[in-house]
């Protein structure tokens, strides 16, 4: 990266490791010095909550606003009906309008933690592309918009090419997705003066399409900026864990479990994640990331506290740290641990410890739970669990039971009184 930006936003993107590529560094840099740049990221409504994989781009929008520009969170009420085929090996399941609307409501809870919404010049706005996509006239759209797209060029984009190279079917429905996303950028520029689209580097082809379309149809100059697709130092996709997706909504993943995910960051990723997911100064992130031995654990606790405080608030972060200390240092149960409450009917006649491991999410299946026990990876109230056939009756639940999988994953099971 040889370009030396003058605008605050691009300087932050480069120094903190957010920037993978930009369609025109100098043009965007000059636009950002000249005035407020409305910028958007699109989010298809494929789940009830955003997850950790979305967090890097949400932080980009946060820094954008802190740098004096206007974030636009675009919810894909329209495009979700088609499904983004980028780098997927199969077609996404199609969702109905009620499920899409419910997902948008669920996802919307998170943005207000990171962005300030309102009517001001740099206040964020939330839009839904169903506003302009739902009522499109197909023949007019083909004539006015479709004629600007070269199928040869669309087939050359890596996101599509990788699917075809594996001889996996790409439906015409999905092929339309990149035209619709390009049309989003055009409409956002027309309606809201949006000058920048951001996204993960897998969205590069879709972003370039939108820039070309906007230039061809209304002769406006717009820009694209992408972030790197993050993998952890051990090669896993960011946000994937043994227990599944790391959701951002507190009702789908407790603040404690969210905190614990960051506390379990590998040594090699700590400094990088501090720069991407917290607002600590870059120099402090580098200092903490360079710690070695047991001292790096303090850096991980700072990482977990900072990220959790941004999403769930400082009190939740402190409660998670207190619970972790209670559980790990003192062998207690901690009152913030994920908890499963059983009804008396569920334990009538006894319940197996294998069932409990599955109910708490510490194991995905009975088979995995039995393997965990056979490999000495499970504990009951901090004592090694050796009998996969162990049954527990109501008397065992006089006090909450603590179940553990490995050293870092814990849950409580209690009886509904």
TrEMBL record:
<feature type="binding site">
    <location>
        <position position="181"/>
    </location>
    <ligand>
        <name>L-tyrosine</name>
    </ligand>
</feature>
<dbReference type="GO" id="GO:0003723">
    <property type="term" value="F:RNA binding"/>
</dbReference>
<comment type="similarity">
    <text>Belongs to the class-I aminoacyl-tRNA synthetase family. TyrS type 1 subfamily.</text>
</comment>
<comment type="subunit">
    <text>Homodimer.</text>
</comment>
<feature type="short sequence motif" description="'HIGH' region">
    <location>
        <begin position="45"/>
        <end position="54"/>
    </location>
</feature>
<dbReference type="GO" id="GO:0005829">
    <property type="term" value="C:cytosol"/>
</dbReference>
<protein>
    <recommendedName>
        <fullName>Tyrosine--tRNA ligase</fullName>
        <ecNumber>6.1.1.1</ecNumber>
    </recommendedName>
</protein>
<comment type="function">
    <text>Catalyzes the attachment of tyrosine to tRNA(Tyr) in a two-step reaction: tyrosine is first activated by ATP to form Tyr-AMP and then transferred to the acceptor end of tRNA(Tyr).</text>
</comment>
<feature type="binding site">
    <location>
        <position position="177"/>
    </location>
    <ligand>
        <name>L-tyrosine</name>
    </ligand>
</feature>
<keyword id="KW-0648">Protein biosynthesis</keyword>
<dbReference type="InterPro" id="IPR002307">
    <property type="entry name" value="Tyr-tRNA-ligase"/>
</dbReference>
<feature type="binding site">
    <location>
        <position position="40"/>
    </location>
    <ligand>
        <name>L-tyrosine</name>
    </ligand>
</feature>
<dbReference type="InterPro" id="IPR024088">
    <property type="entry name" value="Tyr-tRNA-ligase_bac-type"/>
</dbReference>
<keyword id="KW-0436">Ligase</keyword>
<dbReference type="InterPro" id="IPR036986">
    <property type="entry name" value="S4_RNA-bd_sf"/>
</dbReference>
<dbReference type="GO" id="GO:0042803">
    <property type="term" value="F:protein homodimerization activity"/>
</dbReference>
<keyword id="KW-0694">RNA-binding</keyword>
<keyword id="KW-0030">Aminoacyl-tRNA synthetase</keyword>
<feature type="short sequence motif" description="'KMSKS' region">
    <location>
        <begin position="237"/>
        <end position="241"/>
    </location>
</feature>
<keyword id="KW-0067">ATP-binding</keyword>
<dbReference type="InterPro" id="IPR024107">
    <property type="entry name" value="Tyr-tRNA-ligase_bac_1"/>
</dbReference>
<dbReference type="InterPro" id="IPR002305">
    <property type="entry name" value="aa-tRNA-synth_Ic"/>
</dbReference>
<dbReference type="GO" id="GO:0004831">
    <property type="term" value="F:tyrosine-tRNA ligase activity"/>
</dbReference>
<dbReference type="InterPro" id="IPR014729">
    <property type="entry name" value="Rossmann-like_a/b/a_fold"/>
</dbReference>
<keyword id="KW-0963">Cytoplasm</keyword>
<dbReference type="GO" id="GO:0006437">
    <property type="term" value="P:tyrosyl-tRNA aminoacylation"/>
</dbReference>
<keyword id="KW-0547">Nucleotide-binding</keyword>
<feature type="binding site">
    <location>
        <position position="240"/>
    </location>
    <ligand>
        <name>ATP</name>
    </ligand>
</feature>
<dbReference type="Pfam" id="PF00579">
    <property type="entry name" value="tRNA-synt_1b"/>
</dbReference>
<dbReference type="GO" id="GO:0005524">
    <property type="term" value="F:ATP binding"/>
</dbReference>
């Amino acid at each position: 990266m040889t370009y030396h930006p003058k605008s605050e936003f691009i300087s932050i993107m480069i120094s903190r490791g957010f920037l993978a590529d930009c369609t025109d560094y100098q043009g965007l840099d000059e636009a950002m010095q000249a005035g407020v740049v409305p910028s958007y990221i699109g989010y298809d409504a494929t789940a009830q909550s955003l997850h950790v994989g979305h967090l890097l781009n949400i932080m980009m929008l946060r820094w954008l606003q802190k740098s004096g520009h206007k974030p636009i969170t675009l919810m894909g009420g329209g495009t979700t009906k088609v499904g983004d085929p980028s780098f997927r090996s199969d077609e996404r399941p199609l969702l109905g309008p009620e499920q899409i609307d419910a997902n948008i409501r669920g996802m919307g809870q998170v943005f207000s933690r990171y962005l300030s919404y309102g009517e001001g010049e740099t206040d964020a706005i939330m839009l839904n592309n169903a506003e302009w996509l739902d009522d499109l006239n197909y023949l007019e759209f083909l004539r006015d918009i479709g004629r600007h797209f070269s199928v040869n060029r669309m087939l050359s984009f890596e996101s599509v090419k990788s699917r075809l190279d594996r001889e996996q079917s790409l439906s015409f429905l999905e092929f339309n997705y990149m035209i619709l996303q390009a049309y989003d950028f055009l409409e956002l520029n027309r309606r809201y003066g949006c000058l920048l689209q951001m996204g993960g580097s897998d969205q590069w082809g879709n972003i370039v399409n939108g820039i070309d379309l906007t230039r061809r149809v209304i002769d406006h100059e717009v820009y694209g900026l992408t972030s790197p697709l993050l993998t952890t130092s051990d090669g896993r996709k960011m946000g994937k864990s043994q227990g599944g997706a790391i959701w951002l909504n507190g009702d789908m993943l407790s603040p404690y479990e969210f905190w614990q995910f960051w506390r379990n960051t590998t040594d090699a990723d700590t400094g990088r994640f501090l720069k991407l997911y917290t607002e600590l100064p870059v120099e402090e992130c580098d200092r903490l990331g360079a710690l070695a031995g047991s001292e790096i654990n303090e850096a991980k606790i700072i990482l977990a506290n900072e990220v959790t405080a941004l999403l769930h608030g400082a009190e939740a972060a402190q409660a998670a740290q207190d619970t972790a200390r209670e559980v790990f240092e003192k062998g207690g149960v901690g009152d913030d641990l994920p908890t499963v409450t059983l009804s008396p009917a569920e334990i009538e006649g006894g319940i197996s410890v294998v069932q409990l491991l599955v109910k708490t999410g510490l194991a995905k299946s009975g088979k995995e739970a039995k393997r965990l026990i056979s490999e000495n990876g499970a504990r009951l109230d901090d004592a090694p669990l050796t009998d996969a056939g162990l049954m527990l009756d109501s008397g065992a639940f006089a006090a909450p039971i603590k179940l553990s999988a490995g050293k870092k994953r814990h849950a409580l099971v209690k009886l509904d009184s």
